[in-house]
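To the structural biology subgroup,

Please find below the input and predicted structure for Transcriptional regulator, which we are adding to the shared reference set this quarter. The sequence is reproduced verbatim from the submission form. If anyone notices a discrepancy with their own records, reply to this email rather than editing the shared folder directly, so we keep one authoritative version.
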Amino acid sequence: MRHDSRLSRMLHVLIHMDRHDGSITSDNIAKMLNTNPVVVRRTMAGLRNAGYVRSDKGHGGGWILARPLEEISLLDVHQALGRPEMFAIGIAIDHPDCLVEQSVNAALTDAFDAAEQMLLSRFAEVTLSDIARDFDLRFRNLTERPARTV
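Predicted structure (tokenized):
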């Protein structure tokens, strides 16, 4: 099963957008993500509909943040992307009449639901500005390292 990396990729894009002066075209975002501009526009549409980004048309147009990073949580982005599945593992439905399969599926479903609720709660606590601050710290630490001598 393929992993859905839209959340991670869009968080990446939104942080870059915050650091970029002006709008960013779908073409430029597509190059950053190594994908097609149509995929970018389709994905960004959910963020636009939720009010986190806006698009400017015409020459010099592109995507721009509509809200500050402090006002956007991981949960917000996750929801704007259509609430992608959290886990790549799932239940089997090969023998729906089998009582063992039913018991296994009930236990797994309860565990998955609890884990998802915990994860969504954490997503609600983390803003994009938290991620941006972490980036700033990592960047500062990288640039402040003394040059190595060999």
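Summary notes: The chain has one domain: 6-143. The chain has a mean pLDDT of 92.

Regards,
Lab coordination
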